[in-house]
Amino acid sequence: MPLWQCDFEHCHRSAVRILGDCVLCNRHLCSNHLQPGYHDCPRWEDADAYDPAARDSEERELNDLIRKVNTRELAARASYLRQGVPCSTPTLQYDRETRSSAMGGMNYHIEVRFEDGIVWIARIRRFNATSPPAALRDYIIQSEVATLMFLKHTKVPAPEVYDFALENTNNTVGVGYILMQKLPGKSLRWSLATQEQRRKVMSQLANTFIELHKYPFPLLGSLDNPGKSQVGAYARESLTNFVKSKICTTGPFSSLREYYISSIQLILDLIVQDEIYSQQAVDAYLIHRFLLDLVPLMLPSGQNNDKFYLKHADDKGDHILVDEQFNITGIIDWEWAYTAPASLAFNSPIGFLPVADFYKGKNSLGDDEIAFAKLLEEKGRQDLANSVWNGRLHHRFAFCCGYDLTDWDGFVGLFQGLREAVAVDDGLEWSEWKTVTLNRYKNDSGLKLVLSKH
């Protein structure tokens, strides 16, 4: 059974993930019914048509969500948790002008204000065509709560969780939610920070890395049991399948090698099943079949890690809150967090990458990465600094796995940089590489199936 079945009338085929998730008409569509004539919603490339339609669909989505939320029950629950201190929530309404302060790409936030000045937020998952099924939404919420509860016992400045509820009939609020501390500060805008401000943030982030290194875990995966430091399966849509109507998550694993092999094999299986990359299935299959072959080269069998560390899954920079003096006041948005070996967990955050050079395939570190590595060295942590100095290959491999190939120009540079980093097929342009690889994998059963359909 697929993650989603096509919503087109009388169609029973697998819906295509991501590409087939249309937020404009709020449907999941298969590779056939994505085609013009069946699906005529504007494409994002046509901004004049797409942008107004996207705004309208967002307004419908948020109004539907607002109708589901019982704010009276939410406030009553919050007040109860603080021994009866009265609190209130704002009147919920969709406001296009202030939307960015209340929501992100995946979540909607409601302020809960107490009479004594304390402010909490209720973090609620958005519901649209890009949202995972309910069982997976619950698992992701549960994992985020478990992660935040773990972080409470560290010096990492993460918000404290006071309560949470999953989507079920006993939940009087009407939706799954996390009640958590509202931290002060504003999201870091790295591109606008001066060199001095950047260095100040990097120094504090280096301290956070050093703190997280104190808490090793025995497995790779996501924390899955609130109140316990237990590593379970990855809490991520891309690493989840559904088998016989049951959620089938990936992990946990005892080695990075196991994780890469399993996750890439899942991608290959989903390509064959027409659930991903339906418009570039052959290219995507060849890419990931090649990546599968690279795993032993990147991670020789004798190279074992038995300690893994918590890693933020979306470290572009806006997950960091800072005050006016660029003191870090909080690190937020811990959904999808996972444990990883030190080489990944303490690699340079994505926000420090030299974006233009990185996408052009250049494998030298950027100025911010170099500065961050040197700060770790100054703090006496050469081991963590080495994760940054040697991190480019891991960045490239991670980016190429599951990359959105609609950004083809971006991918070509990334992929060229990866092949140069591992010195495999590094002298070939894309068309040459594809010809060579089609021949290399001509007997691969999965590739034969893909070629027969495309």
Explained architecture:
This protein has 454 residues and is of the alpha+beta class. It contains 15 helices and 16 strands. The strands form 6 sheets. The chain has a 5-stranded antiparallel sheet, with helices on both faces. Strands 8-14-15 form a 3-stranded antiparallel sheet, with helices on one face. Strand 14 and strand 15 form a beta hairpin. The longest helix is centred in the first third of the chain and has 22 residues.
User: Could you tell me the radius of gyration in angstroms?
Assistant: 23 Å
Q: Write down the overall mean pLDDT.
A: 95
Structural class: alpha+beta
Could you tell me how far the N terminus lies from the C terminus, measured between alpha carbons in angstroms? Answer: 22 Å
How many strands appear in the DSSP assignment? 16
Global outline: globular
Report the β-strand fraction as a percent range: 5-15%
Biggest sheet strand order reads: 3-4-5-7-6
Number of distinct helices = 15
Please outline the major beta sheet.
5 strands, antiparallel
Task: Work out the helicity level.
Answer: 25-40%
Low-confidence segments: none
Oligomeric state, counting identical vs distinct chains: single chain
Protein name: Aminoglycoside phosphotransferase domain-containing protein
Pfam families: APH
Domain Aminoglycoside phosphotransferase: 141-341
